Amino acid sequence: MRPHRFPAGLRAFCALALLAWAPGAAATLQVAPTLVTIPAERNAQGLVLRNDGTEPMHVQVRVFGWRQAGGEDRLEPTEALAVSPPLTEIPPHGEQLVRIVRLGPPPASTEGSFRVVVDELPVHDAPRRPRSGLHFVLRYSVPVFLTPLAAAAPVLHARIVSEDGARYLEVENAGNARAQLADLAHVAGNGARREVAPGLAGYVLPGQRRRWRLPDGAAAGPGAELQVRIDGEPAQRTLVADR
Fold first, then answer.
1. Contact (CB, 8 A) for 11 and 18
2. Which domains does the chain have, with CATH numbers?
């Protein structure tokens, strides 16, 4: 199976929703929590799926390994985790607990990174459901992290790279735990500030790197900085961007 690649506009989100709908459609599938951590002393955690609609819902749940290559997220098959049940029918206003199970020992030194993908499946024979036109479908992609036995923390380095005529902010994580980045901004040496990724920008996984395209007109030159909020901190940090 070929690795899965996140759509460019969605890969920054902890949970993503892909939808198509007819007028008047409303979201009915809810997933909680939107981030799962399995501590080293446990081998499983739960994910709750809720159907807020008035009709039964069929849902598929899959788990993938998560890595980053070429500055972007990749999903690929994994045998390190399993989900139970992988397919379920949730009654109207009902809930289903899905167990995410670690199949081996906890990681020794580096946090493990995975994603659980939850898909609402179309049900064409549902009562009162129209058989033509667009139907509401929903997907959540939930980050799952395995805590290692050793203490873990991110160590971030930033640089500016050029490729095919475009310039990027690239952040490398030399630590052994992920970093969640938000409110990315580029500040040039002359003080000019340009927003790169307002709001949630995404994760940089341990030992890997992510990149974000710089806006047109962002000034090059020495003294450039990257300002970012890390792991939900209220204040931005400053990383010096190497060239």
1. no
2. 4-146 (2.60.40.10), 156-242 (2.60.40.10)
Q: What is the dihedral of CA 114, 118, 119, 123, to 10 degrees?
A: 150
Residue 189 token pair = 């040496």
Q: Tell if the pTM clears 0.85, that is, is over it.
A: no
d(CA 182, CA 200): 4
Tokens of 149: 């036995």
Q: How far is CA 129 from CA 59, 132, 198, in A?
A: 17, 9, 38
Q: 32 is written with which tokens?
A: 């909680």
Identity of residue 221: G
Lookup: tokens for 180: 């969640």
Pairing of strands 57-69, 87-90: antiparallel
Residues listed for the chain: 243
Do 11 and 75 form a contact (C-beta atoms < 8 A)?
Answer: no
In order along its 243 residues, the chain shows pLDDT tens digits of 444 443 333 333 333 444 444 344 455 899 999 999 999 999 999 999 999 999 999 999 999 999 999 889 999 999 999 999 999 999 999 999 999 999 999 999 999 999 999 999 986 544 455 454 555 578 999 999 999 999 999 999 988 888 888 888 899 999 999 999 999 998 887 788 889 999 999 999 999 999 999 888 676 666 778 899 999 999 999 887 665
Torsion, Cα 32 33 35 40, to 10 degrees, reads -120
